[in-house]
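Hey, can you fold this one?
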Amino acid sequence: MVVIGAGRIGLALKQASDREGLECTLINRTDGWEALDGPQGDPIVLAVRNDDLTGIIDRVSAHRRGDLVFVQNGALRTLLKKHNMETNTRGLLYFAVSKRGEDLSPGRTSWFTGPHGLTIARWMNRLGAQAENVDWARFSAFEVEKLCWLAVFGPLCELHDASVGVVSTEHRDDVNRLADEVRATCRATMNVDVPLDWLTDRLCDYSSSIADYRASVKEWPWRNGWLIEAARHRRVDNEFHQQVLRQIGKGDLLDS
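Sure. Predicted structure:
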């Protein structure tokens, strides 16, 4: 296994692999890149920030780009389409690493799909992080769920000055309303439709499992910002989304 990125996630994956006696090469900004000189076929996990993806893709030789595995949060489809990587392996990670150097803390099932999906899922299970390989349609539903959780609870935690647990229990109407707008945007842009009840139940159930966590609006181009722009482009109603963002002081981002 090859992992690019020696931050919290990448280092935790390397440490867990070493404990299990599994071969894992960790590439950082300067060292280890010779590991990509071999033939194609082995997965390359990108444990880097979304904003670093384009630079990493450009640095990887063309014959290895099909092996890249994208595990970032947020809306990646635009970037993947731009680089002709729509069929690459993707993952949605549901484990935590509190800070660099610490071990991963298993949470819910992590989902993978694509050419290396099964290999990565088996590797993750060996590391103690529950994982499953699924088909594209099922992955797409979970993709909407993860994006929706990020885009809904970030603004609502700031709006109500509360944790995700409080928002999910005391402000369920707001969760339903904002989730409905987000899923409508995903339906129009990604051609993925999920039932609102299923979606909000899963969002709130997950929030209850990390009830004290306080989400916030961040990674704007990959989360709320992408959804706002997509809604404008597709003419999808997102009045409540914009209203909440203005109330928490993000109006300048909307107007930029």
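The chain has two domains: 2-134, 137-249. Let me know if you want another pass with a different chain boundary.
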